[in-house]
Amino acid sequence: MIQVIRYLKGYLAIKVFGFSPERFMNLCSHHKIFLWDVENHGDYYTMKISLQGFYRLKGITRKTGTRVVITKRYGLPFLSTKMWKRRIFMLGLLGSLVFWIWMSRFIWAVEVEGNYYVTTDVFQDFLEESGIFVGMKKGNVEIEALEKAIRAQFNIVTWTSARIDGTRLLIQVKENDLIIREDKCSELSEGEGMDLVAEKEGEVISIVTRSGVPKVTAGTPVARGDILVEGSIPILNEDGTVRRYDYCRADADIMLRCVYDMKEELQEKYEQKLYTGNEKKRPFLMVGTKKLQPLELGKKYGQQDIIEEKRQLKLFGNYYLPVYYGYDLAREYVSEERTYTKEEVKELFEEKIQKFIESLQEKGVQIIEKNVTINKNAGVWKMNVDFLALEKTGITRKTQIPAAEEAPEEEKQE
């Protein structure tokens, strides 16, 4: 803080030499003229003094027989003089400063981190539909409402955080690896129950009931929508008739043996790209959505792939600007018609099978065995796969059993 004050008021670096520099410093101290960074160089001393203190040295130098020479000037008063001489430059600098301050009021970059299942493109489309876009004012971004909207739109997102960092809107999310599907009704109203029903067709392998009335046992075949555990518990009269029902949320661990099927097709003939090795780089500058690029020189490629590499201009680490720079890489290729061999077809289908199995395993499905059939018909390879799987089943649904009306007390006594 002291350094800032000194800079604003201005100070000097001086050289003191002559009859008695030591007495010079003592008198400065007596008259409360502050000196600092004092260094003894034998025949002379160097030190620093405030601009105000320097103007009070005339009488002291006369008494001590010393001479004072200014070696360097520091601070705003001296800078202001230089600035006035270059006022056109300073006006431009001031205008630039105003421009950067004005630009800092907007969002110039929107980034999403932590997403895996929901792609960045899907997030960007949702943000645009929600009124979040590059170039909007920071004050129009309602952080809390945005976080709630993301969680409401994507059920797989369990946590989200949005914050403005410089001119960037950073959205961080966490996704649930296993989507738990539950009925929207989390609270049970009086006189209501929740059943567990089968999600798909299969055979029950095991059932462990924690609440509710089980309607199936191990070995029972079920269809989609069949009741597995009822959320209504009957209370019986002495004659065995239902007096009333007590309702609850059915809860059980139920394992189901079921079948998944997969079908894929692949054309026997395909076009393969053979790259010639010829490449071109075309630099560009993009402001907003407008791309500025020099004219293409030389021979144009008949067929080419273009790969865009770009970076966004930013200052101070987090001050993003709507300016991008980079280049387009054009790679020349020629197309050649080829035919898949049987081994290549098997390899491609095997990759698809493996990805399908991984997607099931992410949902907690265990694959017991698979049956693969591959054949070719009219130039098209076809694959059918049946997977025998073991998975946990049971989703909640409101019970369909109505409440039984209790008989009046008079009838009970009769």
Short note summarizing the structure:
This protein has 414 residues and is α+β, with helices and mostly antiparallel strands.
Write the layout of secondary structure elements.
Elements: H1 2-9, E1 11-18, H2 21-30, E2 35-40, E3 45-50, H3 51-54, H4 58-64, E4 66-74, H5 76-85, H6 87-103, E5 109-113, H7 120-129, H8 143-153, E6 157-165, E7 168-175, E8 194-197, E9 202-211, E10 213-214, E11 221-222, E12 227-230, E13 232-236, E14 242-247, E15 251-267, E16 269-287, E17 290-292, E18 304-315, E19 319-339, H9 342-362, E20 366-377, E21 380-393, E22 395-398, H10 409-413
Parallel strand pairs: 5-7
Antiparallel strand pairs: 1-3, 1-4, 2-3, 6-7, 8-12, 8-22, 9-11, 9-15, 10-12, 13-14, 15-21, 16-17, 16-19, 18-19, 20-21
Question: Explain this structure to me?
Answer:
The chain is an alpha+beta fold. Among the domains are: 79 residues, Alpha-Beta Plaits (2-Layer Sandwich); 67 residues, Roll (Ubiquitin-like (UB roll)); 58 residues, no CATH class; 63 residues, no CATH class. Helix 2 packs across helix 4. The chain is elongated and about 125 Å long.
Q: What integer value in Å does the Rg equal? A: 40 Å
Q: Strand order, biggest sheet?
A: 11-9-15-21-20
Q: What's the story with the biggest beta sheet? A: 5 strands, antiparallel
Q: In one word, what is the shape?
A: elongated
State the CATH architecture of the domain at 2-80. 2-Layer Sandwich
User: Can you tell me the CATH topology of the domain at 2-80?
Assistant: Alpha-Beta Plaits
Low-pLDDT ranges: 178-187, 405-414
Class of the domain at 2-80 in CATH?
Alpha Beta
Q: Tell me the quaternary state.
A: single chain
End-to-end C-alpha gap: 97 Å
Content of β-strand? 35-45%
Question: What percentage of residues falls in helices of 4 or more residues?
Answer: 10-25%
- Mean pLDDT metric: 84
Helix tally?
10
The secondary structure category is alpha+beta
CATH superfamily of the domain at 2-80: ACT domain
Number of strands: 22
